[in-house]
Design brief:
Elements: H1 10-18, H2 31-47, E1 55-59, H3 65-72, E2 76-81, H4 84-97, E3 101-105, H5 108-114, E4 119-125, H6 134-144, E5 145-156, H7 160-173, H8 190-198, E6 202-213, E7 218-222, E8 228-235
Helix pairs in contact: 2-3, 5-6, 6-8
InterPro entries: SAM-dependent_MTases_sf, UbiG_MeTrfase
GO molecular function: 2-polyprenyl-6-hydroxyphenol methylase activity; 3-demethylubiquinol 3-O-methyltransferase activity; polyprenyldihydroxybenzoate methyltransferase activity
Protein name: Ubiquinone biosynthesis O-methyltransferase
């Protein structure tokens, strides 16, 4: 995708704008995000050896769930998103939490052109499957992180299991997410993500699955990346 165009799907922006005012409701449409947020936070914190004092960028921050959580751990956090509605909710929630996060309307590509090699850690969670050119986002994240820094992605694998669980199960049967939240064709295989990393200075360090426990209704991290997964990459020094 040309650098002169924003890597944005207006339909996706509108979709999440509709639920922006319910972003911080732990029992609402964003409940799964609330439930996996502690897992994501701990994975990032442990992967980079502790967030305290680090300069962190959260790409596609939405209403600020992970951004605030990382700020709570002592990180200096910048959150970027292309949704005015999501950023408005994120900024409003800071009045309640008392935390400090620098929220900006920007894409990863836009920021990579102006402040490359800036952040100790870059996170991009549940965002790659919602943009027209996910490879462009990966490339931008690689430019934004400092040499030796850490980049974390979370996304959905393009497998029959992911279709069954993330779309049929979560959206239609259990109604954990609004119908139409995900487009199976946009799910990202780990091999594709790894290829985009190889085109940059990023080196894939680890893949970790996020697993939903049907009986307990809880999530855990573990081997197996057939559905949801986290990827930890390190930029070559």
């Amino acid at each position: 995708m040309s650098e002169t165009h924003h890597n944005v799907d207006p339909a996706e922006i509108a979709k999440f704008a509709d639920m922006a005012h319910r972003w911080w409701d732990p029992s609402g449409e964003c409940r799964p995000l609330h439930e996996i947020n502690p897992l994501r936070l701990d994975y990032v914190n442990e992967g980079c050896g502790g967030l305290k004092g680090l300069k962190v960028l959260d790409v596609g921050c939405g209403g600020g769930l992970l951004a605030e959580a990382m700020a709570q751990r002592g990180a200096q956090v910048t959150g970027i998103d292309m949704s005015e509605d999501g950023l408005g909710v994120a900024r409003m929630h800071l009045l309640e939490s008392g935390l400090t996060v620098d929220y900006q309307k920007a894409s990863a590509e836009m920021l990579a052109r102006t402040v490359p090699d800036t952040f100790d850690v870059v996170t991009c969670m549940e965002m790659l499957e919602h943009v027209p050119d996910p490879g462009s986002v990966v490339h931008a994240c690689a430019r934004l992180v400092k040499p030796g820094g850490h980049v974390f992605f979370a996304t959905l694998n393009r497998t029959p299991q992911a279709f069954a669980m993330a779309i049929l199960g979560a959206e239609y049967l259990m109604r954990m997410l609004p119908k139409g939240t995900h487009d199976y064709a946009r799910f990202v295989r780990p091999s594709e993500l790894a290829q985009w990393m190889r085109e940059t200075d990023l080196s894939l360090h680890e893949l970790m699955g996020i697993h939903y426990q049907l009986l307990s209704g809880t999530y855990r991290l573990g081997p197996g990346v057939d559905i949801n997964y986290l990827a930890h990459a390190i930029r070559k020094a």
